[in-house]
Specification:
alpha+beta, 5-stranded mixed sheet, 11 strands
Length: 512
């Protein structure tokens, strides 16, 4: 029973609790609603400026579109390069402001600022230029004033100088008139002198021609007289080089009074003359009775010589004079040679050796081909060759100048030999230097030929016979006239058998 009475109480308690909870929930909901109402009112208040801002922004966008030249319906186009959009048109403007080849400006304001800065810079530059120009104009004005003053001074000086020049011109006119009269007088005198000079030149030219012609005639006459004198009287201007001191006929040796102090050398050959000779070094060699060759230098003025050849009827004896055309005590003599060396047993090289061995020197040669060479065979200039004949030259030796031949090549060589020989002859004639034949020269130096040439009209005895016959020239030996074993032309030898003809090949240069 008691449990049944507590039911309403519990129900009431529950109702009360639920009422309290509903009241609390309602309060809370009301409080939140108030807060939301306040927030909504606040939001409406806050949204009003935003609407105004959006409206203003939209207006600004509309104005910006009109400003940059796009339609009001054009899109903003963020990141779009199309020129129909706002961003595309702005990008284009920025690039144009930046200039060709320059990266685009970051924004329009920067571009405008940059453009403004450039404009300010150019304006400043222009202002500065105007200022400098103004300064320059002031300087030029000052300089102009200064120059104007100088110009005035120069004008005054010029006027003074012109006045003085007028005065001087008056004086000079008088002086020129006087000088003109003198010039006319001098011209007349000059014309007269020129006429006299022309006449004198004509007379002098004639006189020079006459003198040259007379000189040539006299030179020709002197050369002819010298040749005739040489041919007729055979004068000599040479002296003996030394003398024979003693003779050893058993050993065929002799001793002379020349030696080391005289510059004598072994191998030098001398001609031995008779004591009563008519002169040494003449074309006529009849006074030569023998030849000797130096074999040993014994002292300053003594030497031993081998008797190369002697005339049996006129044996070499003491006090016989000796002579060589290429030896002179203490001096080195020169010779000139023209023509081919055509002596049996002697060629040009051997001839040069003979001259050098005697202490002589060949100054100039006309060689086998007609060319000019020195004493060693080296070519020399044709203009220099005649000048090598000088006062030191003792003889011009004329060798073989060639004969007429049908061989055209050889004839040209002979012609060149004769032409160049004549050039040397002219120089030798000018200096009074005698020319001698090669054979005569070889006689003078005492050369003993290895093979002998002889012609029947030479006027000399045939030299192909041994001087001492077949036996030695010893004591008590008998002398015979045995014929030499040298090769002699069958026409003149008297042998019954003709000589054998050589089968060797001749050079094409000298072949027929």
């Amino acid at each position: 029973m008691a449990q049944k009475n507590n039911g309403p109480v519990i129900g009431m308690a529950i109702f009360m609790v639920l009422s309290i909870m509903f009241a609390v929930f309602w309060y809370m909901m009301y409080s939140d609603n108030q807060n939301l109402q306040q927030d909504l009112a606040k939001a409406r208040d806050d949204n009003t400026p935003l609407k105004d801002a959006v409206s203003g922004g939209l207006e600004e966008i509309r104005l910006l579109k009109n400003l940059i030249g796009v339609g009001e319906n054009a899109e903003t186009g963020a990141g779009d390069d199309a020129t129909e959009t706002v961003n595309g048109r702005v990008e284009k403007i920025l690039k144009e402001l930046a200039g060709e080849g320059t990266p685009a400006l970051p924004n329009l304001i920067g571009g405008l600022q940059n453009e403004s800065a450039e404009n300010n810079k150019e304006s400043f530059t222009a202002t500065d230029r105007l200022r400098q120009l103004a300064l320059k104009v002031d300087e030029n004005n000052d300089l102009t004033l200064s120059k104007d003053g100088e110009i005035e001074k120069h004008k005054a000086a010029l006027a003074k100088a012109e006045k003085k020049l007028v005065q001087q011109e008056a004086v000079h006119s008088e002086e020129l008139a006087r000088l003109g009269e003198q010039v006319d007088t001098l011209r007349g005198t000059t014309a007269r002198l020129e006429d006299e000079l022309a006449a004198l030149r004509v007379a002098s030219a004639r006189q020079i021609e006459d003198l040259v012609e007379d000189n040539n005639d006299k030179r020709t006459a002197i050369v002819a007289l010298r040749a005739r004198l040489r041919q007729k009287d055979d004068p000599t201007f040479s002296t003996a080089d030394g003398h024979i001191q003693s003779v050893d006929h058993n050993r065929e040796l002799c001793y002379i009074d020349l030696g080391r102090a005289d510059g004598l050398r072994e191998g030098v050959t001398f001609s031995v003359y008779t004591p009563g000779n008519s002169g040494v070094g003449r074309n006529n060699t009849s006074d030569i009775k023998g030849q000797i060759e130096i074999v040993d230098i014994l002292a300053d003025h003594r030497a031993e010589a081998r008797i190369v050849k002697q005339d049996l009827g006129r044996p070499i004896a003491g006090d016989d004079p000796i002579y060589s055309p290429i030896f002179q005590t203490g001096q080195s003599l020169e010779i000139a040679v023209a023509g081919r060396i055509a002596v049996d047993g002697l060629d040009r090289r051997e001839f040069r050796r003979l001259v050098t061995a005697a202490g002589g020197r060949i100054s100039v040669e006309v060689g086998d081909e007609g060319q000019f060479t020195d004493g060693k065979g080296r070519p020399i200039d044709s203009a220099d060759a005649p000048r090598r004949i000088s006062s030191r030259t003792r003889y011009l030796i004329i060798a073989d100048l060639g004969d007429d031949t049908e061989n055209q090549e050889l004839e040209q060589i002979y012609k060149l030999i004769r032409d160049n020989t004549q050039r040397l002859r002219n120089q030798a004639e000018n200096l009074g230097i005698y020319e001698i034949g090669l054979s005569t020269y070889l006689e003078h130096i005492g050369y003993s030929r290895k093979q002998v040439k002889w012609t029947p009209d030479s006027g000399r005895s045939f030299p192909g016979r041994l001087p001492n016959g077949s036996h030695s020239a010893s004591v008590n030996s008998s002398f015979q006239q045995s014929q030499s074993s040298a090769v002699i032309s069958g026409k003149y030898s008297g042998l019954s058998k003709a000589t054998t003809t050589s089968v060797g090949n001749n050079s094409k240069l000298f072949g027929n």
